[in-house]
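Can't paste images in this forum, so I'm doing it all in text. The chain is below; anyone willing to post the predicted structure tokens underneath?
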Amino acid sequence: MSKDFLNLLERLVRHGVDFVIVGGFAGVAHGCTYVTQDIDICCDFSPSNLLALQRAVSDLEPVHRMTPHRKKLKLTEEACGQFKNLYLDTKEGQLDCLSFIDGLGDFSQAKQESELIEVEGARMRVLSLDALVRTKRAMNRPRDREAISQLEAIRELRKG
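Text version of the structure:
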């Protein structure tokens, strides 16, 4: 696990952000060998949770990477309601914060279909193997199809 990504995740945990690791990094957590360039999380998009997220990354120079001029992350309680997703660049790496996962649903569904893992002393939620396969099938991109074959092989090894 990349030290930068680990630091980013530990910050979220320390600041009490309610999130589930999804996407490629969830695959890595389950044992996939592919490389991912970002961390995807599904999180509660309530103002209190988004403000906790902002506090967690505030000293990492977070910017909205999908906006013109890469605006700095400056959330207020009132502004939080306008977001469905946040795509951030930080000094520790890219962090994609999603409110909905294709093939699964919203944050409450993602949390329900997640499991707690411990990474270097920090406890965090990661999407279950079965739920991750469902989301990868729904996305159906070439990299998702490759991930599915690895995830299914991991599932078979766990059964044996």
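The chain has a mean pLDDT of 93. The longest helix spans residues 142-159.
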